[in-house]
Specification:
Layout lengths: L2 H14 L5 H7 L1 E8 L2 E8 L3 E4 L3 E4 L2 H13 L8 E2 L9 E7 L2 E6 L6 H18 L8 H9 L8 E7 L4 E7 L2 E8 L3 E2 L3 E4 L2 H11 L12 E7 L2 E7 L9 H20 L1 E2 L1
Parallel strand pairs: 5-7
Antiparallel strand pairs: 1-2, 1-6, 2-3, 3-4, 6-7, 8-9, 8-13, 9-10, 10-11, 10-12, 12-15, 13-14
Helix pairs in contact: 1-3, 3-4, 5-6
Length: 273
């Protein structure tokens, strides 16, 4: 193994945040690219499992070789050492050419000022591989169709996004995106507490999709509660406020209670975010 190869691998591992090689690295990889093209902004998400989402509308899977190539590209361009943005400093006229996120690190390219060829090349590599795979990807015709396709394994479970919060005396905030759950407690007097994160299994995500397929058309709850669920370009928003309380909605209460239990598990067992 050459010194250059070792350096590339170490740089990729520094961003991905793991101390072991190969399979662990691929498992932990989470990337998102938003980049301006002549026809407008496009986006792609790619995960270590090979799951991906193109332009928020089409789900796909990449072969392991493509995931490995993306991980290598992250190291090759020195992403771990990049600043948080390239281009002009603060201005009222800033325009974003694009941004790349690898796990918890995001680098933005501003249209004015210095341009990073390395960041642009990484964005192009991820977008090219994602766009090619997305040509044979899967879409959803409705919210219910999207959830059912996750349950049936047609759409990768990483496409499921959930945000739920309650602002009562023992409230919480839970966000699920790309297979990772991030949760924090909420109290009226002190606000939000420490944030923790936990990776969910594919089976857990599919179970959540099945649970959410039972969501009612309207929400009612004695505590201020907001729930948003997204799969590709399909979504549902439900808001429940005490002053708008109607007849009890057992399905909504049951679903929120299960999400609360998940949030509590994340806050108890998860790593500090």
């Amino acid at each position: 193994m050459t010194i250059r190869t070792i350096c590339i691998a170490l740089a990729a591992l520094a961003v991905i945040g793991c101390s072991t090689g190969g399979s662990r690295q691929a498992t932990d990889l989470r990337t998102r690219v938003e980049w301006l093209r002549p026809a407008g902004m496009v986006s792609a998400e790619v995960y270590g499992s090979g799951a991906g989402v193109w332009n928020e509308e089409r789900a796909f899977r990449l072969p392991p070789a493509d995931v490995t190539a993306i991980a290598r590209a992250v190291g090759r361009v020195g992403f771990a050492r990049m600043p948080d943005h390239f281009g002009a400093g603060e201005s009222d006229f800033l325009r974003m050419r694009g941004k790349v996120t690898v796990n918890d690190k995001t680098v933005v390219q501003v249209m004015e000022g210095d341009q990073s060829e390395e960041l642009a090349s990484l964005a192009a590599e991820i977008l090219t591989r994602a766009e090619s795979a997305a040509r044979s990807g899967v879409t959803a015709t409705s919210f219910d169709d999207a959830l059912q396709k996750i349950v049936s394994r047609t759409i990768p479970p990483e496409a499921l996004r959930i945000t739920v919060q309650q602002r009562g005396d023992s409230g919480f905030l839970l966000n699920i995106r790309g297979g990772e759950a991030v949760a924090r407690p909420f109290a009226k007097k002190s606000g939000y507490g420490q944030q923790r994160r936990l990776r969910l299994t594919a089976e857990e995500l599919r179970s959540l999709a099945a649970l959410l397929s039972e969501l009612p058309p309207i929400a009612s709850a004695p505590v201020y509660t907001e729930l948003r669920v997204e799969v590709l370009n399909q979504w549902k928003d439900l808001q429940a406020r005490p002053e708008m309380a109607i007849a009890p909605n057992r399905n909504f209460d049951r679903i929120v209670e299960q999400l609360r239990r998940l949030a509590e598990r994340v806050m108890e067992r998860g790593a500090t975010a």
